[in-house]
Amino acid sequence: MSSVKAVLRTKSNSQKLFPIAIRIIKDRKTSFLYTGQYIHKNQWDKNKGQVKKSHPDSLNINQLIFKKLSKVNRGLLEAEVKDEYQSSINIKNKVIQTHSSDFFNVAEMYLKNIADRDKSHQLAIEFKRIEVFKVFLDRDKLFFNDLNIELLKKFENHLIVKLKLSRRTMVNYMITIRTIFNLAIRNSFTDIKFYPFGKGKYSIKFPETKKIGLNIDEITLLENIQNITKAQQYALSVWLLSFYFAGIRISDVLQLKWEDFLDNRLHYRMNKNNKLVSLKVPEKVQNILKNLERDKNSTYLFKELEGVNLNDNKQLRTRIKTATRNFNRRLEIIAEKAGINKKLSMHIARHSFGNISGDRIPIQILQKLYRHSSVTTTILYQSNFMQKETDEALDKVIDF
């Protein structure tokens, strides 16, 4: 006895979307063939086993579901005609040994998922990486069982030697390939036995990066600098506010609104990971707020995003990028006037907070200030600045 039906699985992904799958029951044993499509629960018609018409892409998704159902039913019928035993897993594996086992078909699904989240910047980056990989292979198809350790090492060498990319950039390419492979496994398009990544296989290692921040004396120079233009003072206010709030990113600083400051606290949601943040407003920040010129109709502390549609990711990203470039130009001039020999930029505000915090506060508190999900991330980030123990150890050996 066997049955085949399109169903919506009950476990959602990180975007609270649920996967559509083909449920195959054969001899009371069940397996699922995933379509790679995710929807909201209220967009699924359980009785009809298809996506409701209210979904903007219902026609294409329903056609995909019908195609998958047809292939599974064909496999069952062929087994009946040949009078051979086929388990639910055997039927599923026969189906996935078609176009879905091609890396670039799953890559298209990966790109569509990014596009559905309206992440235009990430989409452009990931598309380019996949195209570079395709040009390297000089073919349009790549089965997952051919994507092995040897091929990955050849691609790594191609990126570094021929394209002259940095090791950090090369790692990003490998992460994209690994992410697509994981997506294929998660949707049963390939078997985990072909997985080429991990211990004893191809290992993705992040190269150490040099992080340099300002010290207390240099921050003091900035706080007390004189004879700078109004535009330079404005840029410095943005930088100092970022630093005083534990190095919050420029994209978050520019989106801060006057209404985010309540009861002498800042309340905002981080753009990178959507986490809520509540921080005390230090006295030094209060002075910045007092000096900022607030128009009656102004929404933001800093006016770079006035008139920008925050739902238009491309427009928002462009405006932030332009503002950051302008700030960095002014900050370079400020650093020169202050006699600071380090490159002063918006991003270094976060590094400066890390440099000064160093061994001053417990790593768990620093994790909360940075809003890292794992303390391991904080330790890795902060290891660039925590030098007290190594300095003392060095002195103990050579101080004789």
From TrEMBL:
Keywords: DNA recombination, DNA-binding. Coiled coil: none annotated. SUPFAM superfamilies: DNA breaking-rejoining enzymes. Residues 207-395 form the Tyr recombinase domain. It comes from the Bacteria. InterPro entries: Arm-DNA-bind_5, DNA_brk_join_enz, Integrase-like_cat_sf, Integrase_catalytic, Integrase_recombinase_N, SAM-like_dom, Tyrosine_recombinase_XerCD. Belongs to the 'phage' integrase family. This is Tyrosine-type recombinase/integrase.
